[in-house]
Amino acid sequence: MAEREYNVVFLCSGNSAHSVMAESAIGRWGKGKFKGYSAGSHPTGEINPMTQRVLRDLHYDLAGLRSKSWDEFARADSSPLDFVFTVCDQAAGDACPLWPGQPITAH
Q1: Lowest pLDDT segment from 12-16, 53-57, 77-81, 93-97
Q2: What pLDDT does residue 57 have?
Q3: Within a 10 A sphere around the Cβ of 11, how many other Cβ atoms?
Q4: What is the pLDDT of residues 46-87, one digit of tens each?
Q5: CA 44 to CA 42: how far, in whole Å?
Q6: CA distance 100 to 28
Q7: Domain boundary assignment for the chain
Q8: Which fold has domain 6-106?
Q9: pLDDT above 60 for 1
């Protein structure tokens, strides 16, 4: 079986803190194995300033991080997902869209 990078998306309602941290962490720890993304059911449109400070203090790359809707990952032309993880109870309770690629999901 060929080695490949797995697409992982972390979901939270606002996509401003927890899911962004998870995206950043898997981007560092899983480099070459996992490609991390984050999104929200009701995105705030901005990354929480404290989240930015923590990530910066831990020397994470903040380039490209933004608060976005999970709809970006549910379009027919979106890259197939391998894993979808909710990281907050509100997002876990929301009716999720259909994800391309039939990913494994967990809370």
Answers
A1: 93-97
A2: 98
A3: 27
A4: 999 999 999 999 999 999 999 999 999 999 899 999 999 998
A5: 7
A6: 24
A7: 6-106
A8: Rossmann fold (3.40.50)
A9: no
Give the Cα separation of 96 and 73 in Å (integer).
Answer: 11
3-class DSSP assignment, residue 100: coil
Position 107 scores a pLDDT of: 81
Q: CA–CA distance from 56 to each of 25, 62, 63, 96 (Å)?
A: 12, 7, 11, 31
Q: Mind giving me the DSSP string for 17-74? A: SHHHHHHHHHHHHTTTTEEEEEEESS--SS--HHHHHHHHHTT---TT----BGGGGT
3-class DSSP state of 102: coil
Residue 94 DSSP code: S
pTM summary value: 0.90
Q: Quick check: helix, strand or coil at residue 10?
A: strand
Our measurement of the distance from residue 29's CA atom to the centroid of its chain's CA atoms, rounded to an integer in Å, reads 14
Give the model's pLDDT for residue 2.
56
